[in-house]
Amino acid sequence: MKKFLLILVVFTLILIACQSQSSYRQVRSQNSGSSSSPSETPSGSSPSPSSVSPIKEQLQHYLQNPPPSKITYDLRTTLQDPEGTHTVTGTQVVALRGKDLKLQTQTDTEGQSFNTITYVIQGRYYACQMEQEWACYEFPQPEQDPTPQIQQSIRDDLDKLDVQDGGQRILLGKNTQCYKLLFQDPQSQENGETTYCYDPEGALLYSHTSTTDFESSLEATDHTPSNDADFQLPAEAKPIDEPVEN
Known about the structure:
Blueprint: H1 2-17, H2 54-64, E1 69-81, E2 84-97, E3 100-109, E4 112-121, E5 124-130, E6 134-139, H3 147-160, E7 162-171, E8 174-184, E9 191-198, E10 204-210, E11 214-224, E12 237-239
Parallel strand pairs: 6-12
Antiparallel strand pairs: 1-2, 1-11, 2-3, 3-4, 4-5, 5-6, 7-8, 8-9, 9-10, 10-11
Helix pairs in contact: 2-3
């Protein structure tokens, strides 16, 4: 069960912070034995201004330029392991404002309910949890801003990913453009795929990831502009002085 919860946390962070980062570092096409990669230039020809395909450029733009917004999602995650099938259901609210982030997750897993909020506000990091009442904690600021590293990782990984046009879906009454990412898990060597769907303003309204024994989805049920109230902590934060690793 600990493995399941860890996967859920990692999946959530990947979606919000760096949606195509470390989980997809190897793709199916790179392990198929082909002699060339998408970034190689044929012999005798001049290098192109950009080795990234148009579909990857579109996805890269959405990943790196999320609009200020507040989106509520229905969340469902399922994992199969030797102990059986484990399912988490709930809601997730994501508010974005520049570099500020609020991520609230309310889940029910095997009869246990959780309500947590993570904030990044003006470079300061907070975590809040509801038990009998809200309790919030402030974490030290990392020595180095992780944002440029995340953006570089997105650019690097998109060069390696097999990204395909995923067609269109109607979500919240809007036509969205979807992108399908095929990948191979670097540890298990299992193939999997992720689909992201964005509205014309660049808001992520749908995400679905599946492998042999893991499936998780987020589907937007509400989308509004974010406001200052979204970034107000529900309780005074207590400092935690332990260093934060990048």
